[in-house]
TrEMBL record:
Source lineage: Bacteria, Pseudomonadati, Pseudomonadota, Gammaproteobacteria, Lysobacterales
Catalytic activity: L-histidyl-[protein] + phosphoenolpyruvate = N(pros)-phospho-L-histidyl-[protein] + pyruvate
Gene name of the record: ptsP
Source species: Agrilutibacter terrestris
Domain PEP-utilising enzyme C-terminal: from-to ranges: 3-293
Chain positions recorded as Mg(2+) binding sites: E184, D208
Protein name listed in UniProt: Phosphoenolpyruvate-protein phosphotransferase
């Protein structure tokens, strides 16, 4: 079986009825990027920049960040690379003094884009490094924890100002660097019709979306039964977000753990998802399963899925739509 998976490195991620699905990789290290490239990933769908900031007492400066981002872009030799701005919060062990230490409720605190906007020098440095890296190949910037339109508009206006400054300083940067939002706060998903016009692409972060939608801590083992994407509220929100994005012709990917679980692939295809971003370690397994799926048939079974009223109902749908089941 490992041999069969290995062979799939050079095969397209094409459904039985001939539709190509994009498999991007989540990455946070050089090794992940090299693996993604070797496995034929469409690109990098989520590059988490937190690791550059963790386990150290000093913030990485512009030059260090620039080199790291440029190396990701070069490592993918022309395939698109999506780099996420810093998503630190009191839940992650940073030693730089950037993050408030004792927030009562870290998941609901000053994290993600909120922290970036509160520390403008931090965002400025990161955007300068990212925009400089855009001169080396296709790069997209992804913003975490977006809750409302103002946040993304603020990031975009800073991006525009910094791009102008960089050009005046003689840096070569891409003409257009797409700016996207993580959809992981329920308010952003629900209010999406009002701000989808302000973003170039979307990436659904189910790890946090599920946590906030179900009010269930993603790290609390006592809640592991509750914390699941197999809830009708989650499926409905996913369906609506994907549908709206397609209607408005905005690329939409899913980069939470849900996207990397082959068990969920038929369900996600039925919901309309065509771009998955996942850890390179599971990429070939997902490709194998998708190559056995009939997209047209699955899409036709969406109404049945949406009628499921509980987890058992959703699981029954999944069970009866297993490829080769
Ligand atoms: C998510 O929330 O689904 C996500 C991909 O981001 P992270 O796991 O880094 O919070
Ligand atoms: Mg998240």
């Amino acid at each position: 079986e490992r041999k069969e998976l290995h062979r799939l490195r050079r095969e397209p991620t094409r459904t039985v009825d001939g539709i190509d699905i994009n498999l991007y990789a989540n990455a946070e290290s050089r090794e992940d990027v090299a693996e993604a490239h070797a496995l034929g990933a469409t690109g990098i769908g989520l590059y988490r920049t937190e690791f550059l900031f963790l386990q150290r007492a000093e913030l990485p400066d512009e030059e260090e960040q620039f080199r790291a981002y440029r190396d990701v872009v070069l490592g993918m030799s022309g395939r698109p690379v999506t780099i996420r701005t810093l998503d630190l919060g009191a839940d992650k062990a940073d030693r730089t003094g950037l993050v408030l230490r004792d927030e009562p409720n870290p998941a609901l605190g000053l994290r993600g884009v909120r922290l970036s906007l509160a520390r403008s020098a931090l965002l400025e440095t990161q955007l300068r490094a990212l925009l400089r890296a855009s001169g080396y190949g296709p790069l997209r910037i992804l913003v975490p924890m977006v809750t409302s339109r103002e946040e993304i508009r603020e990031v975009r206006s800073q991006m525009k100002r910094i791009a102008r400054e960089l050009r005046t300083q003689g840096h070569e940067i891409a003409d257009h660097v797409p700016l996207g939002a993580m959809i992981e706060v329920p308010a952003a998903a629900i209010a999406l019709p009002g701000f989808i016009g302000s973003i170039d692409f979307l990436s659904i972060g189910t790890n946090d979306l599920v946590q906030y939608l179900l009010a269930a801590d993603r790290n609390n083992e006592a809640l592991s039964d509750l914390y699941t994407p197999l809830h009708p509220a989650v499926l409905r929100l996913l369906r609506d977000v994907i549908r709206l994005a397609h209607a408005r012709r905005k690329p939409v990917a899913m980069c939470g753990e849900m996207a990397g679980d082959a068990l969920y692939a038929p369900l996600l295809l039925a919901l309309g998802l065509t771009e998955f971003s996942l850890h390179p370690g599971t990429l070939l397994e997902l490709r194998r399963v998708i190559r056995e799926c009939d997209l047209t048939a699955l899409r036709g079974r969406l109404p049945l899925l949406m009628r499921a009223r509980d987890r058992a109902g959703i699981e029954a749908w999944i069970e009866s739509h297993r490829p080769n089941a």
